[in-house]
Amino acid sequence: MRSDILQASILVGIGLVLPATLPAQEPIRIFAAASLTDALVAVVSGFEMTHPSSRVVAQFGGSSDLARQILAGAPADLFFSADRHQLDRVAARGLIAGGEHADVLSNQLVIVGQRNGPDTVDKPEDLAALARIAMADPEAVPAGVYARRYLESQGLWSRLRTRVVPTLDVRGALAAVASGNIDAGFVYRTDASMETRVKILYTVPREVGPPIFYSLGIVQRSQDRERRDARALYRYVTSEAAGKVFKRFGFIFLEPEPQDQPKTRP
């Protein structure tokens, strides 16, 4: 009898200990454009509150660099690019789950200067009077590519390209202007609103500037694992609940399609 009680106690003890020793669920890893940093952190917080068993790890940077990392095998579950092209680069290698990508947000380009500095830019042509202009790498990073295309459309790129100081991402351009090291810079309107040391000198009209799309996709990991939690995060980020948060940070939220249909783009 005593032996039976002892055996039962051991089994109960094992039952209590085993769950604590099981490996923790792997986090959902989302690689996202630097300009999404503040807004996406808030969105992820909302997701984790409604999905308490899930944990999200976000890595932010220039979309072109994040795409390169994913193509090199970095363990991303979702990729939230500041343009379609970088997501398409990853998709072209078969690394975006079929039918699970969408244009989620839009934004607007602005030219910023130091908060206490002079109002040097009333129109794009005024940039010609400045010595240095910061922007994310205009050959690769979406914010810089958008800025370059805009200047090309205005016939100004050839005159200004030698004055451009390229940065790793849009937040780098913002920091360069905020520090007073650069006269002015191209950033997104959402970035400008987050930095108290800068002011908007000029806003590029949306109908004149290049179309800006933030595209989200589920990364098809090499193990081809079933990641229901990653899909849950994808659905949440493209939901109207997340849209309200993005709007609060100044983004233009592209309304989701009906729930029963995957939200895809042409």
Layout: helices, strands, pairs:
Blueprint: H1 2-21, E1 28-33, H2 37-50, E2 56-61, H3 63-71, E3 78-81, H4 84-92, E4 96-106, E5 109-114, E6 133-136, H5 142-153, H6 157-160, E7 164-167, H7 170-178, E8 184-188, H8 189-194, E9 198-203, E10 214-219, H9 228-237, H10 240-248, E11 252-253
Parallel strand pairs: 1-2, 1-3, 6-7, 6-8
Antiparallel strand pairs: 3-10, 4-10, 4-11, 5-8, 5-9
Task: Give a short overview.
By secondary structure, the protein is α/β, with parallel strands linked by helices. The protein has helices at residues 2-21, 37-50, 63-71, 84-92, 142-153, 157-160, 170-178, 189-194, 228-237, 240-248; strands at residues 28-33, 56-61, 78-81, 96-106, 109-114, 133-136, 164-167, 184-188, 198-203, 214-219, 252-253. 38% of the residues lie in helices and 23% in strands.
